[in-house]
Structures are given as C-alpha cells and as structure tokens.
Model the fold of this input.
Amino acid sequence: MKLLIIEDEKITRISLTGILQREGYEVSTAEDGEEGLALFKSLRPEIVITDLRLPKIGGMDVLQTILSLEPRCKIVLITAYASVDTAISSLKLGAFDYLTKPFSPEKLLSILRNITLLQSALDENAELRNRLEILQEKNIIGSSLAIRKLKETIAQIAHNDSTILIEGESGTGKELVARALHKASSRRDAPFVTVSCSSIPESLLESELFGHEKGAFTGAIKKHIGYFERANKGTLFIDDIDDFPLSMQVKLLRVIQEREFIPVGGTANVTIDVRFVCATKINLKKRVEEKQFREDLYYRLNIIPIRIPPLCDRKEDIPLLVDHFFRKHRAEDKIMLLTHEIYAALREYDWPGNVRELENIVERMIALSFSGAIDLSVLDLSDKRRGGRQRENYADYSSFDEFIAKKEAEMLEWAMESCQNNVTSAAKLLKIPRTTLSSKIRRLLPHLKVH
Ligand SMILES: Nc1ncnc2c1ncn2[C@@H]1O[C@H](COP(=O)(O)OP(=O)(O)OP(=O)(O)O)[C@@H](O)[C@H]1O
Ligand SMILES: [Mg+2]
Done:
C-alpha cells in the first residue's frame, strides 16, 4: 500500500519511514504542506499521515484538499497535545484518525491495521454490490433456471479477460448478453465494438479487422483503423463467427493469442488490449467436424461457452418478457388487455424467431389494440408456423414404412374430410388417380369403406 508522510520534523519523518517500510508500506515523505499536496497528486497514495502544524500549508487544509481530490484516501493526523480539539474537528471533516504526540509506533500500526481491515471490507462490499447489480441485470429478463444461471455466469466471468463463445439461435439474446458482459466488466467505459462476419465481404474482412496503411492496396487512399484497434481497452463482439472465412482463421487465432497484429500494408506490430466475445447461431463444433472451422481456433474461443436456450425451452420466461416489452414500448396501460387465451396461445407457440419474434408480436399487439381489445387471430400464431421445430418423437415408430403409412393416412383423412368423403374430389385435391386413392383408403383407412 502506498503511504505518504507529511512532517516537518526530520527526526520523526525518518523514524516513521523506517518503521512503516519494515511493515511493507511503500513510503514517500514531504516536509511541508505544499510539497505534500504535490506528492499526493502525483503518487496518489492510499494513506496519508500528516502533521497538523506544517509550514506553508497547514494540516487541516492539506486534509481538506486531499479529501476533495480523493474522498477514499485515509488520512491520519498527528497533533501536539494542545490541539486535540482541532484533531477532533478534523475527524468531522473526514480524517480517519489522529495521534497525539508523543505516540508509540504500536499505536500508529494499530490505526493502519484498522485502515487495512476497513479497506478490505469496503472492497469486498463493492465487489458484492457489483455482483448483485449484475445478477439484477435489468436488461436480461427471465426467471427460468437457464436465465438465472446465465446471469450468474456473467457475474462470474465478466471480470476476467477470457474469450467467450455465445451459442444460441437467432433472436435468443446473444448480443444482449455480450453487451451485459461488457457492462459488467471493468472495460465498461471503453468501446464495445461489433463486427458481423456475415455482413462483410470476405475480400474486405481483413482490412476491416486489421486496418490498413495508406496505399496498402489500390483504393487505400488513407490509413484505416480496423475493428481490433477500435475496440482497444474494450470488448470486440464478433458476431456469426461460424462465417469467419477459413483462410483468415489462423490470423484471428494469432491475434487472440498474442493480442498483437500487423495492419495490412504495415510493418510494425500493433498491440491491443481487447476482450473477445464471439457469437454463433449454429453448432460451431459441427463446423469443425465439417472442416470449415479450425479446431485450434474453436478450442481457443470455447474456453468459456455460454449457451442460450431457445425460447421454446424456457416458456416460463414469456409472461415476464411480454410485460417487459409492453413497458419498453410505453404501453404498460395495455397489459391488462391480455387475456388468459392470449397467454395460453403465446405459450402454445414455438417461437422459431425466439425473443425477437416475441417482441415483434408484442409490438403488433400494441399497434392493433386501439379497439380496447387484442384479437388473438391477428397475432398469426397459427399451427402451420409452429410445426417447424415441433418434432415428433420418431423413436415411437417401429420402422420408416410405419411412419410413412401414418402420414399418408393422415393426409388421406384430411382430403376425404375436406371433400365430404367424395373420393373423386379428394383424388383431385391430392392430384392422384381415383383408383390409387381408393386402394390406399382400403388399405390405410378401412373404416371409410369406399369402393
Ligand atoms: N432475455 C431477454 N430479455 C430481454 N430482452 C431480450 C432477451 N433476449 C433477447 N432480448 C431482445 O430480443 C432482441 C434480440 O436479441 P439479440 O439481438 O441479442 O439476439 P441475437 O441472439 O443476437 O440474434 P441474432 O442471432 O439474430 O443476431 C433484442 O431486442 C433484445 O433486446
Ligand atoms: Mg445478434
């Protein structure tokens, strides 16, 4: 810990310095108030021990100036017996403690120990508060186990610089999580830069990422700072990393490992301090198996994977999200228009577009609710849109033929129902010969008894 002693008596200065250095403090000294303040400004010590009576600027003024510059600085005043009153009023002004001359080294050391104890309690407290804030992350909505775990993970990993891979279908909140990670980290005041690999043509990607020098290639009319450098001190969010061209993956790997690179057309290395957060909508491991993604890069990115489950696997989050989006779009007064039927329909639906689709639906509900009610039919949460992901359990079928037969029967039943059991019309609907339909019905739907 850095400590500054401001004391005009040489002998006290020297003896205190000796004692405190032996205790492991990094000690600097000043012999008057002016020098003391100047040293404080340049060294920013955590603790200042200052005499009250000092040449040039007195101890009280030193105290007040230091606290206005750094309210967290711990200041111990040394006074002669006669000025105890002043010392007490200094406590009111924010000094940590005071000592009356003469004092024993033990007395001073015990005050310093208290400072250390207080400081570690304060640090711990700040850390806890920060964790709590992250856990209460207001932007990531959801009460499902998956979302609670996600927030816990963000709180745990935000502070180190490890590379993160976020996997999740479209609209599950990957970018939201990447931003939350940035906000929860000590990089929060530095830039959060997004680069979407799928929207930059392969031929431009290198100079967009690495930047280029003036004249590096035809058209490079001036120096260009790339994404890596723009994200310096902050976070670089590489979206759709699975689209990252195979030919450039080794270069990316090198930047992630070394945190340095050479811009296109440049000669000197540029060093960066960047946290990498990558996202993918697809299973990146599969891309590795297909030899479209380098295995070494995959392992480098996958140090801490975060998987955001699709909304259909955490439908308990829907009511909270709906509520959130009504508020976000300033329509909280319309939440009461939501009926049980609407909630049931929202729960039934499978949400292939995940949270983004839910937000769109909420916007549509708001836009179409001027009549004072929300009509379920306008939401278009129809069965045909669902289906997509709702897979059957194919293991229930003993063979492929059995599955086909069941599907065939279902379609025939539908066609016959639609045509009031008129085989000729049903055959037309299905675009198959009438005789074929008849024989299929005899085989698959014997109860219909057609000839
Ligand atoms: N848990 C959540 N709480 C609140 N809003 C969410 C949540 N998840 C997603 N959203 C919102 O849904 C929208 C889509 O999220 P985001 O852009 O982060 O998804 P994404 O996974 O990056 O999608 P894509 O793969 O299509 O780029 C955003 O408006 C985001 O704020
Ligand atoms: Mg996204």
About this structure: Confidence is low (pLDDT under 50) at residues 384-388. The pocket of magnesium ion (ligand 2) is lined by residues 174-175, 239 (CB under 6 Å). The radius of gyration is 35 Å. The CA atoms of residues 161 and 275 lie 6 Å apart.
